[in-house]
Amino acid sequence: MAVSDILSTLAERAKAAEDHVSQAATQSREQLQAEVDRAREDAQAQAARLQESARDAEVKISQWWAEMQENWRNHTAQVSSDIEARKREHNAARAARRASQAEADAVAAVAFASAAIQEAEYAVLDARLARMEADDKATG
Fold first, then answer.
1. pTM for this structure?
2. How confident is the model at residue 55 (pLDDT cuts 50, 70, 90)?
3. How far lies 123's CA from each of 55, 64, 80, 116, in Å?
């Protein structure tokens, strides 16, 4: 898959996420729980695909990127664990604190995704420049 195709897919996924979050305001608790479960399963599946692709390309990617992927896998596992712990919380004050923390985590996740997109843009452009330079040196 070409990088431009991956970026298009990313834009479509971001729009779908925005739509799901907007729809959440009008959903019942049961509908929202189903959306949360679906989103968790999708995130876990994506993390697994990322891990698999990293294994397939391990010799080609930098150590920094490999560490970033490992950190992301650890982060998603921790978020899932925190969500499950929050579900078991019954004390109202603690539940309110956990809800505030979950909202802060959501904001941080979106900010991280935005930064990752910017980093991806830089990496793609830099890779294309590196390829141009390599081609120029090979031909002349």
1. 0.60
2. low
3. 20, 13, 29, 10
pLDDT computed for residue 10 by the predictor: 85
Per-residue pLDDT reduced to its tens digit, 80-90? 787 777 766 66
Q: Helix 92-139 and helix 63-87: axis angle, to 10°?
A: 160
Tell me the pLDDT band of 58, cut-offs 50, 70 and 90: low
Contact at 8 Å (CB) between 35 and 20?
A: yes
Residue type, 26: T
Contacts of 14 (CB under 8 A, 6+ apart): 113
Q: Are 117 and 10 in contact (CB under 8 A)?
A: yes
51, 74 contact by CB (below 8 A): no
Q: Are 66 and 54 in contact (CB under 8 A)?
A: yes
Q: Collect all residues with Cβ–Cβ distance below 8 Å to 105 and sequence separation of at least 6.
A: 79, 82
Question: Given the structure tokens 């992927």, which residue do they identify?
Answer: 69
